[in-house]
Design brief:
heterodimer, A: 436 residues, mainly beta, Neuraminidase, 6-stranded mixed β-sheet, globular, B: 172 residues, 4 strands, disordered N terminus
């Protein structure tokens, strides 16, 4: 009955021209700021245009955030691409608050310079402007960076467009056969790449704080082990393979430690692994289930799921161990908590009237809010700027990803063409290198 | 080893034929002297499966041993009364075959968080393990492995499928 296992590391995954994930906004925000992003001009050989429409990528990012309502290019009265071509009356007539224009020039073989300008339409003045050298390969990343700058300039909050998501996909292949993949895509779903492929389950991906590694659980060789894999090289190492459960890896904010769940001593408890020294110390000791640790952003405490009170609830414990205190009291099922980047809010899975949904708990005001509307929602993960929560849901019997703005006003759905998608995790900032 | 009807015997013989075809002689070197499937009945089967009689007895459709999956109530890991005889039969088999090792796989339905379901699956597997131990089975004969909700047996998203997925499976 032993199942054959199969595993391939995709080291040289190439960029795909078409996104296998598409995003649709299912609930838009009222009061989104009207903005116009004019398609960027190409100053080079008309027969060899740049590989991506930068202005469109910027507009799509801003729209997805729910904070902006970009004007369709069809509605524009003019399409300026240089500062001197801007007539603010064209934009005031359309009630646009802000305007983004720009152009792309060739810059040596495979190189480009992208310039853009952001204007305040009613004051009639430029707010900011950048000139950004880039390459064909990084052009979309440059577009996401422009969206980040626009977003931060106008909202005062950093953007999270130039980030990635990791997620797990599965496709059934006949009876009792399954292809499970760990993938990474840009935050807009573009250029998905497989970094692990297996016929056994893969679970619980977790980004290192520097965005260079993913920890995950793999059942290859018919037992669960925890692996650390370098995202850019594919190099990986097994860091935990004890008897029983090896699960739920969570990085400490400084990247030195992994909290994980082990049942080697008889039942699931949380341990702290020193990644460099490979030393292990127990954090919780309880006869009940303790699992799903998540570090507070200050690194001083962790929350985890435990059913020590009779039903799964969230508890908090000091990083030095000791007595755990119960955090959630709403309902009979709260599990898999994760912290917002500011440490004030927890997202988790909650059960409401038999439906499993994403909820947030404000740790200061104790405000508990159900954020999603599905019946089998799970695996919430905050964007690194705290603006959105991405999670797994089911639509028409298909596993999909969805996201909701932290204020609950914007909801969107990410569609993948084949198979089920689950366990999304949003990357941190600061990813300098590209996957090659 | 007794069979209550000819169907059971036919099953063993066909399994034996298959085993004889797929394996010439003994890979395991255990009790094996038969080179093909035409020889001395079920003995051949035992040889090519690597344990005397084990294959045939486990495959007897009239034995409770052929029931390898037991089911659990929602969020529960207690063994339902209807499965006690099944587990006792497996315990009896393991007690009289001390070299046989069984892996108890624990599973959960898809509801709720995945790592918590891994823990629930392990709790179910451990309940089965403790039951077998209480029936005298040596702990070294029993491994446990939890797949949580990661390996569904039924792919629907309703109570019927969930009930099929809340299970422990004995894998020999």
């Amino acid at each position: 009955m032993k199942r054959l296992f199969f595993l391939v590391l995709m080291l040289g995954a190439s960029l795909q021209a078409n996104a296998a994930l598409t995003i649709e906004i299912t609930k838009g925000a009222e009061g989104a700021l009207p903005i116009a992003v004019v398609p960027f001009a190409w100053r080079g050989d008309a027969g060899r245009p740049p590989p991506h429409a930068v202005g469109e990528v910027v507009a799509a990012d801003l729209k997805r955030s729910g904070r902006f309502k970009p004007l369709s290019p069809d509605e524009m009265l003019a399409r300026p691409t240089r500062g001197e071509e801007v007539d603010f009356r064209d934009w005031r007539a359309l009630n646009v608050d802000n305007l983004v224009i720009g152009d792309i020039s060739p810059n040596g073989p495979g190189g480009f310079i992208v310039k853009f300008y952001l204007y305040d339409v009613f004051r009639g003045e430029q707010i900011t402007g950048y000139s950004m050298p880039t390459t064909a390969r990084d052009l979309r990343a440059t577009a996401h960076s422009i969206a980040d700058i626009v977003y931060e300039t106008l909202t005062g909050q950093p953007g999270a467009f130039a980030t990635r998501i990791a997620y797990v996909t599965s496709q059934r292949q006949g009876k009792d056969q399954e292809k499970v993949e760990l993938r990474i895509a840009d935050a807009d779903g573009y250029s998905p790449q497989t970094i692990v492929s297996s016929k056994e389950p893969i679970m619980s991906p977790a980004w290192s704080p520097d965005g260079r590694k993913l920890a995950y659980v793999s059942f290859e060789k018919a037992k669960p082990s925890i692996w650390l894999q370098e995202v850019f090289t594919g190099k990986r190492e097994k860091v935990s393979s004890f008897k029983g459960i090896n699960g739920a890896p969570a990085w400490s904010p400084d990247g030195r430690f992994l909290a994980l769940t082990l049942s080697k001593d008889g039942n699931p408890d949380i341990f702290i692994l020193d990644v460099a020294r490979r030393s292990l110390r127990p954090l919780t000791r309880h006869g009940a289930i303790d699992t799903e640790p998540a570090w507070a952003p200050d690194g001083k405490s962790l929350v985890f799921t435990s059913d020590r009170g009779g039903s799964p609830q969230i508890y908090r414990v000091s990083v030095n161990g000791g007595k755990a205190t119960r955090v959630t009291f709403e309902g009979k099922y709260n599990a898999r908590a994760s912290y917002a980047p500011d440490g004030r809010t927890l997202a988790m899975v909650t059960r409401v009237d038999g439906q499993y949904r994403i909820a947030t708990l404000d740790l200061e005001t104790r405000d508990f809010r159900v954020m999603s509307t599905g019946r089998l929602d799970e695996s919430p993960s905050f964007a690194p700027n705290g603006s959105m929560i991405i999670y797994a849901t089911r639509v028409n019997d298909k596993g999909m990803l969805a996201a909701v703005s932290t204020d609950g006003r914007v909801q969107q759905r990410l569609r993948i063409q084949e198979g089920d998608v689950r366990e999304p995790v949003w990357s941190p900032y600061h990813q300098q290198e590209r996957i090659r | 080893m007794k069979f209550n009807n000819s169907a059971g015997l036919a099953l063993v013989l066909s399994a034996l034929f298959f085993a004889g075809c797929s394996s010439t002689g003994s890979k395991d070197g255990e009790g094996a002297s038969v080179e093909d499937g035409s020889g001395s009945g079920a003995m051949t089967m035992g040889a090519s499966q690597g344990g005397s009689w084990s294959g045939s007895e486990l495959d007897n459709p009239n034995s409770l041993l052929s029931t390898r999956t037991i089911y659990f109530d929602f969020d529960q890991s207690t063994i339902r009364s209807e499965f006690i005889d099944v587990l006792r039969t497996h315990a009896g088999y393991l007690n009289s075959n001390r070299s046989v090792v069984v892996t108890v796989e624990g599973h959960a339905d898809e509801r709720g968080s995945r790592e918590y379901n891994i823990a629930l699956g392990e709790r179910r597997a451990n309940t089965v393990k403790r039951f077998l131990e209480a029936e005298g089975v040596d702990s070294t004969q029993i491994n446990t492995l939890s797949y949580g909700e990661e390996r569904a047996a039924a792919y629907g998203h309703d109570e019927v499928s969930w009930a099929e997925n809340r299970r422990a499976v004995l894998v020999y």
